Amino acid sequence: MSRPPLSPAEINELIAGLNRLARNLWWTWNQDSQELFQELSPRGWQNLYHNAVAVLQEVSEYELRVRLQDQDFARRVREVLQAFNTYLNAENTWGKEHAPALLAHPVAYFTAEFGFHETLPIAAGGLGILSGDHAKSASDLGLGFVGVSLFYREGYFQQAINQENWQTEYYRILNPKLLPVEPVLDGKGAPLVCAVDVALGQVYFQAWRANVGRCPVYLLDSNRPENEQHYRDLTLRVYGGDSTTRIMQEILLGMGGVRFLRALGIRPSIFHMNEGHTAFLTLELVREKLAEGKSFQEALDATRSQCVFTTHTPVEAGHDRFTPDLINYALNKAPAELKLSFHDFMALGRVNPANESEAFCMTVLGLKASRAANAVSELHGQVSRKMWHHLYPGKPVDEVPIGHITNGVHLLGWMKGPLRRFWKRKLGPQWEANVNSPEFWERMADPDLVSDEELWALRYELRRELVEFARRRLVLQGERVTPADFITFDQLLNVDALTIGFARRFATYKRATLIFQDFNRVAQLVSDRQRPVQFIFAGKAHPRDDEGKRYIQRIIHLSKYSELKGHLVFIENYDVHVARQMISGCDVWLNTPRRPFEASGTSGQKVTCHGGVNLSVLDGWWREGYDGTNGFAIGKDSHPDSFEEQDRRDCESLYKVLREDVVPRFFDRDAQGIPRRWVAMIRRAMVTLAPRFNTWRMVQEYARKYYFAD
Ligand SMILES: *Cc1c(COP(=O)(O)O)cnc(C)c1O
What we know:
3 domains, Rossmann fold, binds pyridoxal-5'-phosphate, alpha/beta
């Protein structure tokens, strides 16, 4: 019996709903929504890089109306829209229960980059991904939260590799109309425009709102006709240009961001500065309070009571510093506005205010103007207290007021399709509700629910997806590939091999090439036909980092011309999409930072729920996560001062662990062909790591320690 066709009004409602859904990034962590958009245009979904807004524009209104006459499709659209509405309007949220005051006066989270999804490539690396995951969990928790960052019209660079295996950079213009963002309008329907003082002039800006579930994120954009071209281009690229561009971007982000929130009538109770780039926001807050008649000291104290600061950089040179000349130029009007002499103004960013040659450090401003500060792992906390103890004269290093909250990841946003289907089959449609809880992962340990055989089958499914993804990408990366070559590419990599992944920014302290230091030993590893091992690498070097580019060149060279050919590949243009393939498909996630420079690291936290295990230096989060049973450690919980010595020791340890522990365990199969001890380790990793190293826990910790008024 066929049902009557949907009425035009019903269809209109579904179309409006789909358009609302596409413009809320919630769909990026909701599998059913993604499947709907993919079904609407499978090719478009792939070519438009999983962009729901662009897919909806690709499909004509007529086609959409026809498709919605498919009763089954219409039913699924209705169900997704219902789930979306339920999410948006949920009454019993953690935030409502624990932080009702923040709903009226939210946390304003400022950051220079937000990494939400591959369609919006405005993040350079881990800092941006962390910001995106923070916002998603703030939404899941129902916390009063708004984000502020910049809309980079050319985003972060795209990586290509030239004939010399050298990284080159190019940029793609982003069209906001085809992205999951919406213009912020004033009462008359025109873009809401604000201005901020920069040098001797003003920079005008508007904003795009990304809806992250329940939370708005405002991305400021200086590409306004009121501005001269060089100011229109201020927000062109993530960390673009020279230090003049940088300081102006940071003025726009910090001071402009506060002004924009005011123009929207938002009165945050807390301003969270994510890294020093955002610290100028404190100057705008001081200025506001001076205008209310407070003295400078009162204004600074009141500002401090509203601000918290997170530092991410254990490398001294990684902290933004601006010369007095540049400050004088870019912030020309600021000292007078704050009723300060230039000397006193500079003092806000100096460790030693009397030192006239000291540069203005954004981290110093952030620390001086906040009521609480934190690092992003326990070890990073120790390093940061030592690094900044001069700022707190008379205090022993241990009492320097910089705590720590270890980073996490937004689990649902990272979980790949097969994994989600696996859990749905096991636990039913409501499985997502508890995905961050220890109880959920405890069930992994229950072989009655999930057998070794099933877990191993899941590993195979995920590993095959990665290998096939890599083969597709390698065809695209190849030069002058003919159809006949496809067969050759399909022989690259081996679905049965122990697959070791390394993907992250090619900052040199991460030592991407450490494993190749003793080439013969790696060659030995991959040449064992009984126990095949293979490596997949990806990552971008900073455009001005030639050393990092040399690392990439070396790896690609090895992948093409050495005995490692076929067992080592480099996937170009690392981004969130490549990351998702790699963290889900790899058996082992390799991380070899030079201690203690990995403040936290988060990519290794994404592998755990997919049944991957970490093989990492005991730095950042892994130093806290590793317990001897849930993965592998390189080296010890200590390090020598000499870099050479550290490289040598870590290299020794790495080969030893691989040869004696990782490889034998992976290939130790029983009569049924199952590597029982390996699967046991996967279970241990899931139970001990997934419920801890996620942003659901992390954001709650921020709320309890730093967001609640004390
Ligand atoms: C998770 C992630 C990072 C951070 O990786 P680390 O290992 O912490 O450096 C960087 N870039 C992308 C695209 C990611 O998904």
